[in-house]
Amino acid sequence: MITIQVGDVVAASLAAAGACLLCSIPMAFLRNFPAWALRTYGRRALLVPLLILPVGSWLASLALSGQIDSPAGHAMVIAIAFLCLTLASALLRYYLSDYKKSR
């Protein structure tokens, strides 16, 4: 028999909320964000997406091998959380500064 626990419901609702949030972002926002990031942050703006790719792939390989609960897995989770938080803060800054004014 399969049991559904509270953590499963919370994870599913967070995934659904994240999918709804991603689908509600207008295309004009996504088209103009990279140019704004390069103007605002310079070449450093390219560093975060380039770091998210290898860290995310290392995290996925650790998860697939079942070692996510190791010290290396914890470090990768913290690293990806920090990089995603940095990217989210840049998106929020762009929305509040330039995108909202242009509408």
Report the portion of residues in β strands. Answer: under 5%
Number of strands: 0
- Quaternary structure state of the chains depicted: single chain
Order of helices and strands: HHHH
Distance between the termini: 53 Å
Helix content: over 70%
Q: The biggest beta sheet, please?
A: none
Estimate the mean pLDDT confidence.
84
Any idea what the radius of gyration is? 17 Å
- Low-confidence sequence ranges: none
Shape: flat
Q: By helix and strand content, what is the structural category?
A: mainly alpha
How many structurally independent domains?
A: 1
Count of helical regions? 4
Structure description:
The relative contact order is 0.10. The chain starts with 5 loop residues before the first helix and ends with a helix. The radius of gyration is 17 Å and the shape is flat. Helix 2 crosses helix 4 (71-102) and helix 3 (47-64) runs antiparallel to helix 4 (71-102). It is mainly α and 103 residues long. The protein has one domain. The chain contains four helices and no strands. The chain has helices at 6-23, 27-41, 47-64, 71-102. This is Membrane lipoprotein. Keywords: Membrane, Transmembrane, Transmembrane helix. The chain crosses the membrane at residues 12-33, 45-64, 76-96.
Secondary structure topology:
Layout: H1 6-23, H2 27-41, H3 47-64, H4 71-102
Helix pairs in contact: 2-4, 3-4
Tags for this entry?
81% helix, Membrane lipoprotein, transmembrane, mainly alpha, membrane, transmembrane helix, 4 helices, 103 residues
What's the gist of this structure?
This protein has 103 residues and is mainly α. It is 81% helix and 0% strand.
